[in-house]
Amino acid sequence: MSDRWIQFEENLSFIICDGIYEVVSKEYWTKLEAIVKERAKENTNFLTGLNKIHDKKSK
């Protein structure tokens, strides 16, 4: 995969996850995040985008 494709997947993942994060409760997000991380173990690009949410939350 090219670097541009990897970056695209990571950014798309972040946009999707951030949109969900913004509209659900913290409790729901915590449960959903655990499920998604378990099921997406092998998709590192998706997980990288998902983990960017932690950076956003800590600001």
Order of helices and strands: HHH
Total tally of structural domains: 1
Based on secondary structure, the structural category is mainly alpha
**Overall radius of gyration:** 12 Å
Number of helices: 3
What's the rounded overall pLDDT mean? 91
Q: How would you classify the quaternary structure?
A: single chain
Distance between the termini: 32 Å
Helical content stands at over 70%
The number of E-state strands comes to 0
- Name the overall outline: globular
Low-confidence stretches: none
Write the layout of secondary structure elements.
Layout: H1 3-23, H2 26-39, H3 44-57
Write a short abstract of this structure:
With 59 residues, this protein is an all-alpha fold. Helix content is 83%, strand content 0%.
Write a structural description:
This protein is an all-alpha fold and 59 residues long. The chain has one domain. The chain contains three helices and no strands. The protein has helices at 3-23, 26-39, 44-57. Helix 1 crosses helix 3. The N and C termini lie far apart (32 Å). The mean pLDDT is 91.
